[in-house]
Amino acid sequence: MDLIIVQVLTLLGLLVSCLAFSLIPLALARRASRASTLSSGLRSRFLSNVNSFVGGVFFATCFLHLLPEVREDLETSLRGYGIVTDYPVAEAVSCAGFFIVHLVEGLTHRCLPHDHGPPQDVPSRERQPHSTAGEDDPTRPLIRNEAKVMDYGANNPSANAQNTAVSHDSSVVSSDSSSASAGRNVQTFLLLIALSVHGIFEGVAIGVQSSQSSLLSLFFVVVVHKSIIALSLGVNVATGDMSLPYKVMTCVVFSLSGPVGQGIGLLVTDADAGGLVTGILQGVATGTLLHVTFMEVLSKEMKTSDMLNTLSAVIGFALIAGLTLLPE
User: Fold this and answer.
1) Is the dihedral of CA 156, 157, 158, 162 positive or negative?
2) Closest CA to 105 of 270, 326, 287, 304
3) Any idea of the CA torsion for 101, 107, 109, 113, to the nearest 10 degrees?
4) How many helical (H) and strand (E) elements, i.e. helices and strands, does the chain have?
5) Mean pLDDT of the chain
6) What residues have CB less than 8 Å from 244, skipping those under 6 apart?
7) CB atoms < 10 A from the CB of 208, how many?
8) What pLDDT score was predicted for residue 210?
9) pLDDT of res. 145
10) Global pTM?
11) Keywords of this protein's UniProt record, alphabetized (predicted)?
């Protein structure tokens, strides 16, 4: 079979596999949300364990796959320019990517509209004296009879003030929830960028292969790796607050990254051209994924002493560690 035909078939296979695995969590989450038999506590625990597994996958991907690849690419590129150094260039570029992402998130958070909490003059429930059963409690008609709420509130300014405070607290909660939702969407967008950049470079690696044997062996390893990452991204997107069309669009964009990179690789005539730029971009992508792994996933799921979460993270790490043993 002609090499170009094999390239096209592997391109389609990479697209279909990534798209399928990224959409599976969306379908499962949509089905679980309709199921009334699954309690919210059990669903939350399940998602926590799955997120821990995702954190383990990202953890291993950063240190066992991305970072060694960045180090090798940068050393080869610098050697081509006659530069030989013991300085950890790959690690420095990855750390720079980490801080770039953290800076972008910090600036985004400052630009988001959010409230800092209720005013200081709003009385809290802890400060209000509790009346005894024998005392005349003006709030008792609110509890005993809903029909008296309007009449009593109209003649009692303190009750109106309490209702206003409750309404203000509700608006504060709504504002904080909206800010948290927007921040989560930004994190998902950053994760999409990191994984898509890496997916493009993996696709380029497949596209520049000149023999069918090396092409198929590399395709097998990449498609397994990207399918697991696609599944992890799908879980992250499924637990977010975006609408369903945006969730599907996120999965489609990531699924297209590999085939786009493979198409670029097919058009590349000199495989060494732009090696330094490629290595730098890979390092920045590694730093982005490090930020997501430690600041967003593991920092939330590994705070508790839940051994099941720890076991899930170890399983995710072991899965990528096992795949790393496969020949390149």
Assistant:
1) positive
2) 287
3) -150
4) 12, 0
5) 74
6) 26, 30
7) 19
8) 72
9) 42
10) 0.59
11) Cell membrane, Ion transport, Membrane, Transmembrane, Transmembrane helix, Transport, Zinc, Zinc transport
